[in-house]
């Protein structure tokens, strides 16, 4: 028992810090009233009238009549989607008032397994970001359809769940429940027995299918697309996560529906899932999401509840975080404004330590000395040459009909398009005029030398090749180009720099961004990386590319779980049938 | 994994039971909509449109357009206060739609220790009542001021917390936190480490004192007296339990305040704490409390939430019970009416088994074969005679001023009254005309033969003596009378029958009710026991007694924790100073 904490609470001993003269946003009662917060060490000792806690040695901060809220919680985020190492990521989100995240570090697991995840968790330990570990329930997503570096089975999941910071399993796939995948079923039993949480990944689950997922023990989900899907989850006692990710901006519509339907919002939180470093640097994190929600009509207190108490509830952590009350972790924000126009996080305390002061970040963490298990993760079994990417035409054909996959412009969901392509020297040719490019994924763990090949549309890139070692859910090297030579240079360059992203044109590297950690993460600051990304994206836009966050979209084109088509190192995937397809449909001439 | 459950959810296999054609009260969203509930074994498989779950072998119940709610949960009740053995208690509460309780079986622990509690839990196993065990945090309440049969220290509490049905510790006393009682502090650390709940007993805790209790980890409390105290607890993230007990009817006022203040009621539940068998037989359980709450202005859905989801939340059990959703325990009520006048539980399912059908209880449990550890618990070290109760007057005194304790008529809280009493043959005499009776508590565990003695007012009993082996928090034999002879007969009779209650007049037992289990519980049914109690109370009322539930009030007069005075086997207790006092203040003549 922390007896000093009790002594501060009773007023026997002065608080370490007091935030005074604010308006308490009480997420438990939904009230707002004048008051302050008294802190002892990393814990809140008193809330409301806290003048009695001020004494010798107490650091007093005047909230200036602004709101005092709990620190924000993102209950479903993959920090890797920012392409930032965990320390600059922590700096970036703390600067926006986020003090806790729940994350599976799934991408790290895909490349470097549990050992890699544990290395990242260790790197985070010196930061002030409170990171809960939700153990990946499957690594990779589709073991039969892709090659990954790390792989999880029920035994590894069980071992990971025994970590003190482990709070459950992540991304429990609805279709896998319906199919009764043995490792998943075993892991669901494990978390049920331990009282931990099964976090869902339940796109398209409705009615009976959703009933089965809930019956299997899934108690939260972030994959609802629209308002009715959000409400269906809430009705089932499933903590519904309204999502505003860099790849799918669905929050405003979801909020509007929830507000109009008048449902109790206790079971609704707001998450970002995948947050690009440019969004994080320029737009913000949950502070931005609150603005979107306010703009969409959500009352202020309910918006705050959705990024604090309700987010904690999604993992049964209400007794530790998510509210301003004695005994809770001292995660506190001072916030100005309660409208979309005026809302702003001014100052932040994380576990009792002030990390943000009137907009100025007070913490800067040193670049981590990365463990070997998360470095040098790109190994080619066979050399990559232009020939590696060629798709052979049927003998004698001069023109073929192929199934090209096109991404939607606003979300990286793919749809088939039938096109006719010429064949030259026995190989099918791309056709920039028709917006049909080569796309391939190159296995990079030195395991089998696979190269999956297909045709891609929707980006409108007119020349060169873009490559990236970030590709869900295997993080092999994805490369898309208008010619084989540039594609080969790009892939080989990424192997040379051990991961990252690059654009190559006429055999020259126009722009590259190294990702030394797992080929996924940069050690730059969020601002610096955003500037690098701008440069890369500008080079692509100058060549006609219409997708602003090209590499993030590409990373989802590899995901054999996202409808309706995908490319992995195994080949061209029909996501609906889970089969590998030949992109060539028929000979035309 | 229960694969049949998933198959029922998806519609592959028919449900065991379907409750159809109802109005679902969805406690998660606060909505009411048409639908039904499909059950597989002891678990809900589907909610809403469940027609697809009906097939060969499905038992279909037509809800007749009535409401379908989750089974009710009493998150703080001492079954022993009904004076019923656990099986008739289970029958009685199931008949009113209560399917789960959280209880510490503290009274059993006081008499027979953890072994006794475990015997009762085992007796309950054949019933359909879902009983969670909240380990008593102190047995007895005041070890320095009373003698008990069982006693708990931190080690026993830790052992008990390892039971699978243990969900936390109970009745964590605010003043003991402030005093830093070592066993309690250790137990609070234990539950914090295990993620279990610390349930409070926080009367009079306000401001800094309440902050300290919350900081110590207490996360629910049932001791708020009025509305402002309820809201203070909720503001602190503490699950506030609005209480309607047979000894303290405070629910209506608390509800009115909560409704008027407009606070979010997520953190409010309704409990009964101590429920007398007469109330249980004639008035009901939580179904009655709902009526009180509706009458006081609480909206229907919020009232249902307070006896279901919110009650589950007080112990972080929302993922198991408290709502109608796939995967939850199939505890379901069909309810008619949504007003104080019309509300009625018609039918009930507990863990998928129908136990109540249109008001008719379908289950009748056999009387338990009680384990020896909970039988024959009354042993006197020394014989009790009329002399045992005499209070010696100061030498030569013919009249003394004494401090008499008077109970309030509506709650067994005592207040001092100074009275002058005559002394005869060297002993102070009671004075029926002034409503001053003898009261004593006789140690009954054969440990020390203590007899504590004092003077009692407020009951207005005019002749005879009433004795009971139920007396918080030690359950020694409490006896109150107008003369020593009847008092001695009464106590000796209770020892002869090994516990119970009796009224004696002119040396004859007018009425007795045996309590074979721990001297606390009867094996009669609730109706039968209520009839017996009526007879006893009528005998007392015929002799002028104005307290309708005399023995329940007497049981609290022994409680050295309830202000301001008490009687234990150690003597006359000043609860505020925790000291034993001499009831004789001064010699008058």
Please tell me about this protein's structure:
2 copies of one chain form a homodimer. In chain A, the strands form 4 sheets. In chain A, strands 19, 20, 21, 22, 23, 24, 25, 26, 27 and 31 form a 10-stranded mixed sheet that branches. In chain A, strands 1, 2, 3, 4, 5, 15, 16, 17 and 18 form a 9-stranded mixed sheet that branches. Helix content of chain A is 27%, strand content 29%. In chain A, helix 4 (154-161) packs parallel to helix 6, helix 8 (227-235) packs across helix 9 and helix 9 (251-261) crosses helix 11 (286-295). With 589 residues, chain A is an alpha/beta fold. Chain A is elongated. The model of chain A has no long low-confidence stretch (mean pLDDT 97). Chain A has 16 helices and 31 strands. At the A-B interface, helix 1, strand 3, helix 6, helix 7 and helix 8 of A face helix 1, strand 3, helix 6, helix 7 and helix 8 of B.
Radius of gyration of chain A: 25 Å
Tell me the quaternary state.
Answer: homodimer
State the distance separating the first and last CA atoms of chain A: 81 Å
> Which structural category do the helix and sheet elements of chain A fall into?
alpha/beta
The largest β sheet of chain A comes out as: 10 strands, mixed
Helix proportion of chain A: 25-40%
Individual helix count of chain A:
16
């Amino acid at each position: 028992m922390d007896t000093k904490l009790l002594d501060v609470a009773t007023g026997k001993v002065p608080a370490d810090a007091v935030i005074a003269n604010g308006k308490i946003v009480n997420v438990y009662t939904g009230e707002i009233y004048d008051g302050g917060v008294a802190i002892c060490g990393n814990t809140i000792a008193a809330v409301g009238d806290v003048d009695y806690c001020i004494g010798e040695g107490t650091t007093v901060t005047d909230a200036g009549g602004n709101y005092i809220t709990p620190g924000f919680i993102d209950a479903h985020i993959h920090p890797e989607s920012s392409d930032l190492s965990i320390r600059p990521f922590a700096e970036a989100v703390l600067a926006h008032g986020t003090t806790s995240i729940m994350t599976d570090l799934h991408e790290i697991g895909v490349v470097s397994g549990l050992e890699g995840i544990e290395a990242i968790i260790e790197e985070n330990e010196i930061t002030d970001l409170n990171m809960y570990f939700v153990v990946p329930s499957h690594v990779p997503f589709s073991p039969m359809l892709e090659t990954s570096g790390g792989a999880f089975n029920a035994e590894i999941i069980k071992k990971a769940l025994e970590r003190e910071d482990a709070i459950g399993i992540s991304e429990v796939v609805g279709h896998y429940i319906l199919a009764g995948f043995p490792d998943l079923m075993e892991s669901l039993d494990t978390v049920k027995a331990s009282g931990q949480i099964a976090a869902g990944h339940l796109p398209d689950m409705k009615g009976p299918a959703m009933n089965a997922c809930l019956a299997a023990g899934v108690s939260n989900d972030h994959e609802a697309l629209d308002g009715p899907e959000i409400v269906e989850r809430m009705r089932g006692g499933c903590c519904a996560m309204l999502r505003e990710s860099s790849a799918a901006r669905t929050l405003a519509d979801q909020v509007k529906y929830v507000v109009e339907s008048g449902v109790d919002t206790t079971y609704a939180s707001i998450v970002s899932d995948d947050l690009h470093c440019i969004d994080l640097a320029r737009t913000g994190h949950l502070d931005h999401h609150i603005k979107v929600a306010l703009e969409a009509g959500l009352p202020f207190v309910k918006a705050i509840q959705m990024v604090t108490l309700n987010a904690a509830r999604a993992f049964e952590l209400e007794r530790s975080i998510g509210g301003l009350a004695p005994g809770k972790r001292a995660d506190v924000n001072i916030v100005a404004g309660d409208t979309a126009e005026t809302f702003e996080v001014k100052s932040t305390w994380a576990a009792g330590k002030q990390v943000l002061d009137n907009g100025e970040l007070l913490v800067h963490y040193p670049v981590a000395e990365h463990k070997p298990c998360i470095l040098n993760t790109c190994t080619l079994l066979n050399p990559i040459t232009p020939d590696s990417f060629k798709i052979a035409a049927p003998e004698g054909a001069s023109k073929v009909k192929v199934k090209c996959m096109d991404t939607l412009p606003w979300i990286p969901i793919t749809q088939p398009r039938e096109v006719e392509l010429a064949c030259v020297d026995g190989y099918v040719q791309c056709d920039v005029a028709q917006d049909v490019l080569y796309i391939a994924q190159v296995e990079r763990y030195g395991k089998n030398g696979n190269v999956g090949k297909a045709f891609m549309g929707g980006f409108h890139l007119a020349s060169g090749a873009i490559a990236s070692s970030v590709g869900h859910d295997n993080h092999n090297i994805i490369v898309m180009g208008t010619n084989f030579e540039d594609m080969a240079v790009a892939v080989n360059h990424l192997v040379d720099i051990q991961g990252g992203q690059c654009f190559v044109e006429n055999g020259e590297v126009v722009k590259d961004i190294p990702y030394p950690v797992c080929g996924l993460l940069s050690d730059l600051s969020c601002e610096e990386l955003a500037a690098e990304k701008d440069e890369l994206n500008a080079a692509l836009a100058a060549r006609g590319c219409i997708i602003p966050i090209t590499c993030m979209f590409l990373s989802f084109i590899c995901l054999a779980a996202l409808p309706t088509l995908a490319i992995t190192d195994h080949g061209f995937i029909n996501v609906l049938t889970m089969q590998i397809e030949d992109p060539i449909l028929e000979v035309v001439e």
